[in-house]
């Protein structure tokens, strides 16, 4: 249960969780310790896991036909990550989910997630709130990549994703910002 404390605490911020719900959540979220660069879900594989970061960083990215990486999202402590469409519909994962650092994670399979949703009205209400926050983070990321002026992009990044500044390598940050590594290094001075 100790590994699940951060998850339970986070979920309680969104709504009431009974002791019975806590036990069910702890039972269905599985602990996973990962190494840096470990692939958690491969592209073109079944997407049946939702990850929660206890410690560390994970990311979802794809590789285009020219071999360039595009990082859709980075999750840090206290956040969730999955290929949401693939997870929801049990389709093929359209991206790679990778542990960026040595990390401590919890994950839940789609089947267990559905069991939780169907067994607890509280969990269902909390899920809606968490999903709204997940969408807000993605909207901020979309706004970030649409900023053309690099100085403004860097400023926006620092304001809206401060937990990522100086925590990840330049290649991953550049991929997240949708700019070249060289451009990132040049403009990093404004931080």
Task: Note the topology.
Elements: H1 5-12, H2 19-28, E1 30-34, E2 39-41, E3 49-55, E4 57-63, E5 69-76, E6 80-81, H3 84-89, E7 96-99, E8 103-109, H4 110-119, H5 121-145, H6 150-160, H7 170-177, H8 181-187
Describe this structure in words.
- The chain has 191 residues and is an alpha+beta fold.
- Strand 4 and strand 5 (69-76) form a beta hairpin.
- The protein starts with a helix and ends with a helix.
- 45% of the residues lie in helices and 23% in strands.
- It has eight helices and eight strands, in the order H-H-E-E-E-E-E-E-H-E-E-H-H-H-H-H.
- A four-stranded antiparallel sheet has the order 1-8-3-6.
- The protein is globular, with a radius of gyration of 17 Å.
- It has a domain at 2-120: Sandwich (Jelly Rolls).
What is shown here, in short?
With 191 residues, this protein is an alpha+beta fold.
- Would you identify the regions where 5 or more consecutive residues have pLDDT less than 50? none
Mind telling me which CATH architecture of the domain at 2-120 this is? Sandwich
Structural class of the helices, strands and pairings? Answer: alpha+beta
Distance between the termini: 40 Å
CATH-defined topology of the domain at 2-120: Jelly Rolls
The percent range for helix content is: 40-55%
What strand line-up does the widest sheet have? 1-8-3-6
CATH superfamily of the domain at 2-120: Jelly Rolls
Characterize the overall form. Answer: globular
What would you report as the Rg, rounded to the nearest angstrom? 17 Å
- The amount of beta strand, in percent, is 15-25%
Please tally the β strands and state the result: 8
- How many distinct helices? 8
- What kind of assembly state do the chains in view correspond to? single chain
Mean pLDDT: 89
The succession of helices and strands, N to C, reads HHEEEEEEHEEHHHHH
Main sheet: strands, sense, barrel: 4 strands, antiparallel
Question: What is the CATH C level class of the domain at 2-120, in words?
Answer: Mainly Beta
């Amino acid at each position: 249960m100790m590994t699940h404390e951060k998850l339970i605490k986070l979920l309680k911020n969104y709504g009431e969780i009974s002791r019975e719900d806590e036990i069910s959540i702890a039972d269905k979220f599985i602990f996973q310790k990962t190494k840096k660069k470990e692939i958690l879900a491969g592209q073109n594989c079944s997407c049946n896991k939702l990850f929660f970061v206890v410690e560390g960083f994970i990311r979802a990215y794809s590789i285009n036909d020219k071999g360039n990486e595009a990082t859709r999202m980075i999750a840090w402590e206290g956040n969730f990550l999955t290929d949401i469409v693939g997870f929801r519909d049990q389709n093929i994962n359209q991206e790679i989910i990778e542990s960026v650092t040595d990390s401590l994670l919890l994950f839940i399979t789609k089947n267990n997630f559905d069991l939780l949703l169907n067994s607890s009205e509280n969990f269902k209400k909390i899920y809606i709130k968490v999903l709204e926050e997940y969408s807000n983070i993605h909207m901020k990321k979309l706004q970030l990549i649409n900023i053309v002026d690099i100085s403004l992009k860097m400023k926006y990044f620092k304001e809206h994703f401060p937990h990522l500044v100086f925590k990840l390598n330049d290649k991953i940050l550049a991929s997240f910002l949708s700019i070249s590594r060289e451009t990132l290094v040049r403009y990093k001075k404004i931080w």
